[in-house]
């Protein structure tokens, strides 16, 4: 697997001190009543190989921050650095092209990266194998379950060979059992590839189950309100006592932020 993985991703060890550096970032949008401050003076580093979850109430600016890190928008103030190159972004919706097969969806990312045509199919199949979709290369999107579609989306994101994977609530629309399976798969893939992950969620237990570090944003405007280092051995389960205990502590902090800002 290690040889196939290295061939599929062309990953080399990054000498960088961090995978992402967010320095005093603020973001405003123009509204009917004038500029609306969404993010306020956020500073956050993601280390190489680190798994960080961003947690907060709806509307606190989690997805906005992820879009800024992805380069889809520019901050109003502050700086964002991703020295390992452009991050890969995985959305809540799989965003696969329905007229392409699973394999061709992955190949598209390889083609855009400049991988030679003769090498694309083999590498796409290796990436599909990495996400446990062996034999799915020729399947159309409508033939795949929701969980399988998200696996293809994950393979396509990994095909971009980025040192940083940005994930915006990628499992929120899935049923609990499928989500649980994909938590295991994401943890396995993260550990095998050593990619850095910045993962947005509003699910406290999901945040604790997956991350090495949980960052809580305050309600709008979003600020870094609190951070927790998750010192619990992997693999973890949603129902583990240590996961539940830390989740209770974080939930209380989250409720306090919501009350403080008058949101329900």
TrEMBL record:
Enzyme Commission number(s) of this protein: 3.6.3.-
Domain ABC transporter: 20-244
Keyword Transcription attributed: no
Key words of the record: ATP-binding, Hydrolase, Nucleotide-binding, Transport
Keyword field contains ATP-binding: yes
Molecular function as annotated in GO: ATP binding; ATP hydrolysis activity
Domain of life: Bacteria
Pfam families per record: ABC_tran
The protein's name: Aliphatic sulfonates import ATP-binding protein SsuB
Taxonomic lineage from the root: Bacteria, Bacillati, Actinomycetota, Actinomycetes, Kitasatosporales
